[in-house]
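For homework, think about our next protein:
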Amino acid sequence: MPAKGSAAGVALAIALVGSAYLTATAVGSPTHAWMGWLSLLPLFVAIRVLRPLRASACGALWGGCLFAFCVTSGRTAVSANLASFAFLTAIPALYTFLGAGLTRWMGFSPFVLGVGWMGVELALAPLGLHSGLLAGTQDHTALMDYIGRALGYVLVGFLVAYVNAALVAVLGRVGLSVPHFVPTTVSPDCGRSLISQILGCLTLFALQPSHPRAPPV
C-alpha cells in the first residue's frame, strides 16, 4: 500500500511538471491554445484527492516549474527575479490549499474552483501578463476576441479553469481511481457524460454538485 501511494505521488509530481510546461508553452502562442484546456488537470487532481497542505505543496511545485519554463522560453513577460518566483509559487500554493479545503467541506465544485481562479488571475497581474495566465493561453484566438475583449481576460481564465476542473470531475465519476491512477470500470455512458459536461462548461450554467471527500488514507 505505501509503495502504491509513493508511486502515485511520483506520478502526480511528474504530471504537475508536465502541466506547468504545457501552460507555459500555451501562453501567448495561438497554435498551442488547445493546451490551455487540459494543462491544469493535474493541479485539480491534487485539489480533489489530497489534504490541503499536500495540495499546497503541489501548487508550489507547479508554480515553481511554471516560473522556470516561462523564464527560459522567453515568450512571456515573466521576469527572472525573486519577486516573480514568489508570485508564481505562493499564489498557486494558496489557491490549491484553499481549493482542497473547500473540497473537503462542500465537495469538488468546478464552478467554485473556476471562480477562485479569477482571483489567481488578478493576483498575478503584477507579473505583467497582459492577458493573464490561463486567458493568455487563449490570446489572439476567437475566444479572447469575443469574450475577453468584451468582458475581460479574467472571465476567460474562469472558463478555462472551469473546463479543466469539470473534466477532472467527469473522470472521477466514470470510474478512474484517481489517488492511485489505476483505471477500473468505465461506464458505457462515459462519452455522452463527457460531452454533456463540456457543453455545460461552455454555457457557464452547469454547477456540478458532489459530496465532500475525506482525505485519502
Summary: Residues 2-203 form one domain. Residues 174-188, 201-212 have pLDDT under 50 and may be disordered. The radius of gyration is 17 Å. The CA atoms of residues 104 and 212 lie 5 Å apart.
